[in-house]
Structures are given as structure tokens and as C-alpha cells.
Write a structure and sequence with these properties.
CATH class: Alpha Beta
Number of strands: 5
Strand order of the largest sheet: 3-2-4-1-5
Order of helices and strands: EHHEHEHHHEHE
Shape: globular
Number of helices: 7
Largest sheet: 5 strands, mixed
Number of domains: 1
CATH topology: Rossmann fold
CATH architecture: 3-Layer(aba) Sandwich
């Protein structure tokens, strides 16, 4: 059995503003750095044996705090990156609706197949994230492993681990700095 601890990165200024970050490399803000320290402190005695992180700053900075608390090296994996929002990255929802209304409506109806211009579909993200998870589980069949990633990535992992319908993915996005734990049979 692998014990998985899924951690969402700490807060960024763009989280506060409501901007879609996607794969833009936005760093943590001061609250986010505090989120990371608090999460690390909460988890330092849990017996974590490996830490994996998205390579984007907001996740890797959060993972770094956990690495310092546990003495573990961070293993970055680009497959754990947030969904690529293409031309919508850096925009507010209101700006996306104004500039890309038809595409936005199409995506709301079918996010599994419709991507933002230059971005990823949900299916594409799901494939890369699930492959990363499978690889991690194969390498750590009896370990406690922390995965530091992004809201949508964690929601997709929760869909799989909790065997929920993929349509519930939007309801499973944790708040910044939050973590959830699972026991996964090998």
C-alpha cells in the first residue's frame, strides 16, 4: 500500500486576483510562502519518504518547504503541471468571456474535448497526470509519498483515487495550501 499525500501549492497573487494561471510560472506570494511553511510543519512527522512536485515555481516553492522540513530531495515532474490554458492564461474569467465567448461556451459544454486556443483539453491533462501517478506508485509501492501540484491536477487525481465521475472534477479542487491523503493498494 502506498500512502499518498496530495498537496496544492500555496497562494499566489494571481489566485487572489482570480487570474487563470495555467502554466505561467507565477511564484508564491507571502501568504503562499506561509501556507507552504504551515503545510510542511503539519506534515514533517508523517514519515514521508519521497516528494514529487510540478516544476512550476508555485508548486516547487511549496515542495521546497516540505523538503527542508523532512530533509528530502524534491523530484520535479513536468507532467504534474497545471492544465495549459493557452491564450486564456493570465486573464480573468470576465476577460475570457468577453474575448473568447463562443469558445468559452463550447468549453463549458465539453471541456473533455474543447481546449482554450493553444491550450489542453481535460483528457490530455488527465492522460499525462495519470501516467505520472502510475509511475510514482510503481516506484514507491510501500512508501509514503507527497505530491505537490495544482488545483486541477489534484482534482483529477482525486477523481481517480475516489472513483468519482469525472464531471465532479470542478468540485474537488482544494484551496491553496490544502492537502488530502489516500492509501492506494499496490
Amino acid at each position: 500500500m502506498t500512502r499518498l499525500i496530495l498537496i496544492r501549492h500555496g497562494e499566489t497573487d494571481w489566485n487572489v486576483e482570480g487570474r487563470w494561471q495555467g502554466q505561467i510560472d507565477v511564484p508564491l506570494n507571502e501568504n503562499g510562502r506561509e501556507d507552504a511553511r504551515e503545510t510542511a510543519h503539519s506534515l514533517e512527522e508523517t514519515g514521508i519518504q519521497a516528494i514529487y512536485s510540478s516544476d512550476l515555481k508555485r508548486a516547487s516553492e511549496t515542495a521546497k518547504a516540505l523538503g527542508e522540513a523532512t530533509g528530502l530531495e524534491i523530484r520535479t515532474d513536468a507532467r504534474l503541471r497545471e492544465i495549459h490554458q493557452g491564450e486564456w492564461q493570465g486573464l480573468l474569467v470576465s476577460e475570457i468571456q468577453e474575448r473568447y465567448n463562443q469558445r468559452f461556451e463550447q468549453r463549458l459544454k465539453n471541456p473533455w474535448a474543447v481546449a482554450p486556443p493553444g491550450g489542453e483539453t481535460v483528457v490530455e491533462v488527465q492522460q499525462r497526470v495519470f501516467q505520472a501517478l502510475d509511475d510514482i506508485l510503481q516506484k514507491h509501492p510501500e512508501d509514503t509519498v507527497a505530491i505537490v501540484a495544482h488545483g486541477f491536477v489534484i482534482a483529477l487525481l482525486r477523481v481517480r483515487l475516489e472513483r468519482k465521475p469525472v464531471e465532479q472534477v470542478w468540485d474537488l479542487i482544494p484551496r491553496s495550501g490544502a492537502w488530502v491523503e489516500y492509501i492506494v493498494p499496490c
